[in-house]
Design a protein that fits this description.
The chain is of the alpha/beta class and 296 residues long. The chain has one domain: TIM Barrel. It has 10 helices and 11 strands. A 7-stranded parallel beta sheet has the order 3-4-5-8-9-10-11, with helices on one face. α1 packs across α2 and α7 crosses α8. The termini are far apart. 46% of the residues are buried.
């Protein structure tokens, strides 16, 4: 069996995607939620390891990093700046606001205009940026007018604090409502080959030229585990490589953002950029029954 040299592979192998017409990124990014503590709360147990993972991501030509002010809270953004500032010229950092972390594995909606204004100001300071390239509403707040949340982000965009706006954990109806207020360039929902509930939203993004960022891209149910393991063993790769390769093939607007706090896992994930599934392997995975949806 041939052993793949994952160190020789970079995110550039996945091709590129243009966000908002003016931000070209490699189509395999990095999700920075897992560089925080257990339960996405507090600092990581291995701070040097988390910093090393971020720096290694840049070496592997990852130029899109997704985070949120609630990761830690604040910890993820602070570590990104500590590890990578001043940023490479082509680096795009996306962050989110409107969902607060109030304890380990605990979330609290807060997408009111005043809070979003404070959230953007805080993210700018922590990330050491003058403008956030992509700012996403983390999740619609049931206690706040959705339009009011989007209008606030549109105002911050006009003020030059935000370059482009994206949405997370939404429906097509949310996207269409937001588009009437301000251009939306990306959507981030839960999605994997075994969790395809949001296929219709992905198809919508394809038609509209929006990026689709799947969170929890490695999610698998029991049937999926067996199917992935079979392919991985036959091809001499890890199961994450197989699942990420499926996502990259699924759509040209797909921008997977797998997360980790370990350099070895990062290198393995990035190697998926150059891994190709056969038609039969792709079809077998596509036929997996989707798992139930839940927010994170």
């Amino acid at each position: 069996m041939m052993v793949r040299d994952t160190n020789a592979l970079t995110a550039a192998e996945a091709g590129t995607l243009v966000l908002g017409g003016d931000m070209r990124v490699h189509r395999l990014g990095f999700g920075a939620m897992r560089i925080t503590g257990k339960g996405v709360w507090g600092p990581p147990e291995d701070r040097p390891g988390a910093l090393a993972t971020l720096r290694r991501a840049v070496e592997l030509e990852v130029n899109f990093i997704d985070t949120a002010d609630s990761y830690g809270p604040y910890v993820s953004e602070e570590l990104i700046a500590e590890a990578l500032y001043p940023y490479p010229d082509d680096m795009v950092i996306a962050t989110k606001g409107g969902w607060e972390r109030v304890g380990p594995a605990q979330w609290l909606h807060n997408a009111g205009p005043k809070h979003l204004e404070q959230a953007v100001t805080g993210s700018l300071k922590r990330l050491k940026l003058e403008r956030i390239d992509l700012y996403q509403l983390h999740v619609p707040d049931p206690a706040v007018s959705f339009d009011a949340s989007i209008e606030t982000l549109a105002k911050l965009r006009e003020q030059g604090k935000i370059r482009h706006i994206g949405l997370s954990n939404v429906t097509v109806e949310h996207v269409e409502r937001a588009q009437k207020i301000v251009p939306i360039v990306s959507v981030q929902n839960r999605y994997s080959f075994s969790d395809q509930e949001w296929n219709y939203l992905l198809d919508y993004c394809e038609r509209k030229g929006m990026a689709f960022m799947p969170w929890s891209p490695l999610t698998q149910n029991r049937e999926a585990n067996e199917a992935v393991q079979k392919i991985a063993q036959a091809r001499g790769v890890s199961t994450p490589v197989v699942t990420l390769a499926w996502l990259l093939r699924r759509s040209a607007v797909m921008l997977p953002i797998p997360g980790t706090s370990r350099v070895s896992h990062l290198e393995d994930n990035v190697s998926a950029a150059a891994f190709e599934l056969s038609d039969g392997e792709y079809d077998d995975l596509s036929a997996i029954v989707p798992a139930p949806f839940s927010f994170r």
